[in-house]
Amino acid sequence: MTAVLPPLDRLLAGGQQIRLLVHGILPPGIAPPDPARCERLAHVAATPRPGSVVADPCRLPFAEAIFDRALVATSLPAPRGELRELWRVLAPAGLALLLLPCRSGWPWRRRGWTRTLVEPLLEDCMFEILDWRMASLPDRTCVALLGKRDGLRPAMVGLAEPATEAAPAMRRMGCVQEKGPPAAGA
Q: What is the count of structural domains for the chain?
């Protein structure tokens, strides 16, 4: 259980203003988050449970970018749809902690995930792996701390240097007027 604490601590860090989505049933080794630490806390489940919203994980009933963090404990039956929907409800620079069942090395037990199976899927759904661990909670679990890649760039501060020359393609298209010779009086 100690192997999962650093990613979980990183996910839940940030004081009293966390907007957290919890999806799935947490394993016995993970305590549910304290509602007093969260500004907004939503539990999503596939079956009715006390205090949960019953929703299709591929169509969550929340607005875009409403959660800063997500704690997802599921086997990802529809991985691409679930991860894209998770990306949609996470705010820019949001974090998610995935708790996935690990694939066993035994040939007759091939259900579960490995990092080599999950990584291309996460790339496709615009997430990056910040931390990856294995834990026993009590079953072998892959613990992945993910960051949302949203393509945003930092805002530019200060003045940019002026462009000295237009691109040749812009000149060919006629978007830029060619400068003539300097005026005689200048």
A: 1
Class of residue 126 by CB neighbours under 10 A (exposed 0-12, middle 13-18, buried 19+) = middle
Residue 94 CA, distance from chain mean position? 6
Residue 89 DSSP code:
H
Given a cut of 50, the residues of the chain with pLDDT beneath it are 1-4, 153-163, 166, 170
On whether the CB atoms of residues 132 and 142 are closer than 8 A, the answer is: yes
- In this predicted structure, what is the pLDDT of residue 96? 94
Phi-psi region of 68 (alpha: psi -120 to 50; beta: other; left: phi over 0): alpha
Could you tell me the residue range of the domain that residue 114 belongs to? 12-148
Q: What is the CATH number of the domain that holds 76?
A: 3.40.50.150
Q: Is residue 160 part of a domain?
A: no
For residues 94 and 62, the answer to whether their CB atoms sit within 8 Å is: no
Count the Cβ atoms, other than its own, within 10 Å of residue 98.
27
Per-residue pLDDT of 14-52, as tens digits, reads 777 889 999 988 888 788 888 888 899 999 987 887 778
Tell me what pLDDT residue 174 has.
56
Rounded Cα gap, residues 27 and 37, in angstroms: 20
pTM of this structure: 0.73
